[in-house]
Amino acid sequence: MYDSKARYVRSLFSKVPLEYDLLLGLLSFGQDRKWRAFVVKQASPLPDSVILDVATGTGLLAADFARAIADRGLVVGVDLTLSMLQTARERLKERGLEGRTDWVLARAENLPFKTGCFRSASISLALRNVSDARLTFREMARATSQGGVVISLDFARPPNRAFQLFYYDYLLGLFPIFGRIASQAWGRTLSYLGRSILKSRTGIQIAALMIEEGVQDTKPVPLTQGIVCAVYGKKR
Ligand SMILES: C[S@@+](CC[C@H](N)C(=O)[O-])C[C@H]1O[C@@H](n2cnc3c(N)ncnc32)[C@H](O)[C@@H]1O
User: Fold this and answer.
1) Which end of the chain, N or C, is less packed with Cβ atoms under 10 Å?
2) Are 97 and 63 in contact (CB under 8 A)?
3) 111 C-alpha to center of ligand 1: Å?
4) Which residue has a Cα nearest atom 26 of ligand 1?
């Protein structure tokens, strides 16, 4: 059963999958590659690792994980938006990574996997979007084996006041304008992005939430002037 936030988020993302990768790259000035590389490095997958990527979208992070493992490993991407998953499947097939990936239509808050069956679990640029962040971490921790890495990467509010002036103009002013030039759907999605970042949890709050849900030694690491924050730890 989908709640109103899940329905809203799905309606936003269902209309933008084809341009998503390009726009993320353009609007982040290519920084998104570095953010994903950081996530993969912290998760440090082995060649035979089975990895979970929650709210996988078009599979950008899943692709980076799939490249980091060998054919003996597997990346399972989960999302609630069918068109995002279909795009992920097609893109990774084009890149020859289909043998290392599987796609599951499900909600982050109710993962259809056995306890402890993944070596690591990630959620990238999506914690603001889920309906229940606590349940999401509970489920990610449950599905991860003991000692495995649970990691969240998400947009955050940069701490530096001078940088904030420039960044908020860009995020709240220019972003939705660029979006509307691309399409009405992108206009809606990018104005939602700005609003959701203003309400987002801090890295310290995310780390505390993860600890409560069974992840230990959590550490927040701000990246790119703090416009994103990675928070990670190990399943207890
Ligand atoms: C901004 S995209 C992020 C995609 C990808 N992880 C990335 O880093 O580019 C957010 C994704 O989260 C998905 N999503 C939002 N809420 C979700 C939930 N409760 N369960 C599963 N997926 C969800 C959306 O469908 C969308 O594909």
Assistant:
1) N
2) yes
3) 14
4) 57
Listed as ranges, residues in the chain with pLDDT below 50 are none
Q: Model pTM greater than 0.70?
A: yes
Which pLDDT score, from 0 to 100, does residue 1 have? 64
Domain span holding position 135: 4-159+200-235
**Does the Cβ of 88 fall within 6 Å of ligand 1?**
no
Would you say residue 68 lies in a domain?
A: yes
Amino acid sitting at position 4: S
Residue 165 lies in a domain: no
pLDDT of residue 2: 80
Give dist(CA 192, CA 127) in Å, integer.
14
pLDDT number for residue 49: 97
The CATH number of the domain holding residue 226 is 3.40.50.150
Domains identified in the chain, total number: 1
CB within 8 Å of 58: residues ≥ 6 apart: 17, 20, 21, 84, 87, 88, 91
